[in-house]
Design brief:
By secondary structure, the protein is an alpha/beta fold. It is 40% helix and 15% strand.
Length: 220
């Protein structure tokens, strides 16, 4: 799909791994959570189970999604394990931070009158911690959080809803994210051009990739 100059009116961003990351000493608690129950956080199948139960609803009581994750994986739950896993999800010392170019890129896009959307698979506690610190609600025209919409990427319904709220057509938007499956391929299957944020240079042969948001301008 070739882009026609000046055709793009809106940029839709993924959140984690694209705009922000969790600064944590040592291993991320989500990875420790997975390892504690014999799983690999990088395994796509496990990740989708984790997201489905933790991120599709606003959970104040984290025991509920933890028990559901264990049940689907066929892991016997006990109070000690449940308490340990909840503690990992609430772990202190996890500090959300923007990538160096994030804030300036978003501000410049706003200055140039692009509509900005945010589509994120996230859970309530993580997003609240981030927004309390950086007030990112004010940076976007439309924000769709999985725990509010009940929709997780790569479900195409989330892209349909975003376009409706942004009031743009498929050909007038870009989807920018770090997940080849959930952000880029899912968006392109729906008809939106996808740009892969490949900060670790895993996909050097992928055509529409950038290693920094500073490179986004060549697609606009």
């Amino acid at each position: 799909m070739r882009l026609i100059p000046n055709m793009i009116k809106a940029i839709i961003f993924d959140l984690w791994g694209t705009l922000f990351y969790d600064d944590v000493k040592g291993k991320h608690p989500f990875k420790i959570f997975a390892e504690r129950i014999g799983q690999d956080f990088e395994d796509y199948g496990y990740l989708k189970i984790f997201e489905k139960h933790l991120m599709q609803e606003k959970h104040y009581n984290l025991e509920i999604p933890v028990r559901l994750i264990l049940k689907e994986l066929g892991i016997q739950a006990n109070d000690k394990l449940i308490s340990e896993l909840i503690g990992l999800l609430k772990k202190k010392g996890v500090s959300p931070k923007p990538y160096p170019e994030t804030m300036e890129t978003l501000k410049e896009l706003k200055r140039q009158n692009y509509k900005l959307g945010l589509v994120t698979n996230t859970f309530y506690h993580s997003y609240k911690r981030l927004n309390d610190k950086f007030k990112i609600d004010s940076l976007f025209d439309v924000i769709l959080k999985s725990y509010e919409t009940g929709i997780l990427k790569p479900d195409p319904k989330i892209f349909k809803l975003m376009l409706k709220k942004l009031k743009v057509r498929k050909t007038e938007a870009l989807m920018v994210g770090d997940s080849l499956e959930d952000d880029v391929k899912a968006a392109e299957k729906f008809g939106i051009k996808g740009i892969l944020v490949d900060r670790k240079n895993k996909y050097l042969n992928y055509e529409n990739r950038i290693s920094s948001l500073e490179e986004l301008w060549r697609f606009l």
